Amino acid sequence: MKSKRANYPKWVEEFRGEGREIKKVGSCYYLYTFKTVYDPMTKKPKKISTGYLGKITEDSGLIPAKHRQKATLMKPLELGRPLEAGAVEMLELLGSDILENLQLFYRDELAEAIFIIGKIRLIEPTALKRVDFLYSNSYDTVLHPRIRLGKNELTALLREIGRNRLAQVNFMKLYTVGSEFLLFDGTRIVSYSENLNLAQIGYNHCSIQDPQMNLLYCFSLCPTFGPAYFKVNAGDKPDVSVLKNALDEFGMINFIMIADKGFGSDENFRYLQDNGISYIVPLKRNDSMIDYQSLKKGISHMEGMFQYHNRTIYYCTMKKYKAVKQRGRVKAGAEHKITVLQDLVITFTDLGLKNQEIKDYNERIERGCKGYTFVDFQEKEVRMGTLTLRTDMDLKAQKLYETYKERESIEDANKVYKDVLEDDKSYMQDSDAYNGWLFLNHISMMLYYRVFNCIKAAGLTSRYSVKDIMTYLKRFTYQKINGEEIREIPTKVSIDKLRNIFPEEMKRIVPEKSNKKN
């Protein structure tokens, strides 16, 4: 569905021209440049922002952006050691709009620090205590010099970011313009910190009751895939109860709730339906809505199949109907009842996963594990390798499956930062600091998906991960000795492969007259 262009006042519209777009944040108007590129995955053109021009006001017209040139105005550092440059430069180029938009809502030095930390935590996921060291050994000291990232500075930085929720929300709103779908994902983050009042005893689908926080994430599915919004709530609140607060704060429509298997209760479904919230929810394998009798007939009786990540997925569609009695006298030849479609339920079977589950179960039987018997295996075998999804939307089986699977990539990205939470606990002295920490991770996730989307557009996700790309690029170094700039490119790195993924960016990172390391 194509979004309609907003009608802004005449004094705003006069600045719109070829290659320019206007974004409204609150009551303010901002002017950006953009370009249209061809997306080989969707086979359609897509629009991407390329720069920030300034703020539009009725009295002053266009107030140009403050294009800071601190790195070129200050005396360049004389460095005798090589600095990691490739990954830093790549993220600087891919995320230039992120820095510019941060500068709309934060003071200059704070905006730079947020962006730098976001880059560093993607290049090398690490505890905050190592950020200052990594910064001092990176090309960021040339691009953004004199940024202080010691422990005291970081603690103050986290609190300043966390206290200003309005700035976070206004920044995030810039990245939902034109989005067709917004995807919510609830995840639980366990924390034993006594200083976080958000960490409350809560229940999750793994039956683990620990002090935890409920992190609700929103991802834009179109025109580009990536994180758009987050909100953290106390861990004793279920996912469904915090949705309304998030919607009110962000003012969004047209989204899908993608939940985990612990979500599928009648009460939760009623809440979503009553509030007009679309959903995709996986059902537990023992759910009564699943008709396993049809699956016992075998693969040959399945409704269809498709390929997903080089695996064959079979599916069987089950529709749940609600019978409605016809009022009044029934005419001759008419049916006594009509049926109304309520929800769509589809069971998917992955034979590769099924064979692995059968193997694992049989190994447990052979080891004599309690609760594992051949009789139980005969009963459960038909369920193995299956995934059943329930939705209120009219989606084809493959589209439904692929949309749900996007959740896994979201969880993978979240896991990186959940793993370093324990190392960062000394900085989490209160909820403000924790909210600031989450915003830094949000910037890292935005950059993560900038790289991921480039890999995906090149059709190379089966060969390269974001981590692979960062590893390759980290080997590009920069030195300045006696006023001479030296860039070293290891011969092991395949420049041509990187150019296939980042054609424009690599022209900037690898100048023609670069010194190659032998």
TrEMBL record:
Domain Transposase IS4-like: 227-443
Top-rank taxon: Bacteria
Annotated Pfam families: DDE_Tnp_1
Single GO molecular function: transposase activity
SUPFAM superfamilies attached to this UniProt entry: Ribonuclease H-like
GO biological process, one term: DNA transposition
Name of the protein in its database record: Transposase
Species this protein is from: Schaedlerella arabinosiphila
